[in-house]
Amino acid sequence: MEALLSSFGVVFLAEMGDKTQLLVMAFAARYHWRPVLGGMLLGILAVHSLAVAAGNVIGSYLNPELMQGIAGAAFLAFGIWTLRGEAEEDEAHDSVRSPFWTVATAFFVGEMGDKTQFAAMTVAAAYPSWQLVLTGAVLAMVLADLMGVICGALLHKRLPEKKLQLLSGGIFILFGAVTLIQLVIATF
Questions:
Q1: What's the Cα-to-Cα distance from 121 to each of 38, 104, 130, rounded to whole Å?
Q2: Number of structural domains found in the chain
Q3: Cα–Cα nearest to 151, from 49, 51, 31, 17
Q4: How far apart are alpha carbons 125 and 152 in whole angstroms?
Q5: How many CB atoms lie within 10 A of CB 123?
């Protein structure tokens, strides 16, 4: 259960204020919500299945203390990455395919190499239960992006994107620092 909760928490935080929330919100404004949600779910499953598989393989070769150190450093990196912002992302373009495939493809491409994918990979490397990690990552992404579709307009009116970015980045840095401090305390 710890693997599921860790995966959910880390990925949910990483997705808050991320480009794919805005992407899904834009698609939902353009297309009917069913193909948008279906395409989003397929994209989430594909990208996080790859991340969890890679993290699971990596984690089987590393000892727990080293993995904790890597996780703490990764959380700090995610926080800095979030605080510095992301470069302008390519806009999703219409394709000859249905809205479902347009959304799924755009979501998959948008998440490849993203901090949420690296977060899922890091958690998968730390826990042997890849099924729970994948479930937590997928649930977190779906919930975060549903919030983007449903509440995006309200959040942007009341909470500027920069403040959401600062909050998310600060939380990652806090988790990274706490993880590394715990490792140092346990080592000495």
A1: 23, 20, 10
A2: 1
A3: 17
A4: 32
A5: 30
Residue found by looking up tokens 């993880």 in the block: 179
Q: Which CA distances in Å does 15 have to 29, 56, 180, 188?
A: 20, 21, 23, 35
Direct distance between the N- and C-terminal alpha carbons of the chain, in angstroms, rounded to an integer: 29
Q: Domain limits at 75? A: 2-187
Q: Are 145 and 17 in contact (CB under 8 A)?
A: no
Output the six-digit token pair for 121.
């990979």
Tens place of pLDDT per residue across the chain (188 aa): 888 998 999 889 888 877 777 777 767 766 777 888 899 899 999 988 988 888 878 777 777 677 678 777 877 887 787 777 654 444 444 444 688 998 888 878 777 767 788 888 888 888 888 899 999 999 999 998 887 667 544 545 566 667 767 776 777 788 778 878 988 998 88
Write down how long the chain is.
Answer: 188
Question: DSSP state, 31?
Answer: S
- Count other Cβ atoms within 10 Å, centred on residue 5: 11
Structure token pair of residue 129: 């239960």
The answer to whether 101 and 31 are in contact (CB under 8 A) is no
- H, E, C per residue of 53-71: HHHHHHHCCCCHHHHHHHH
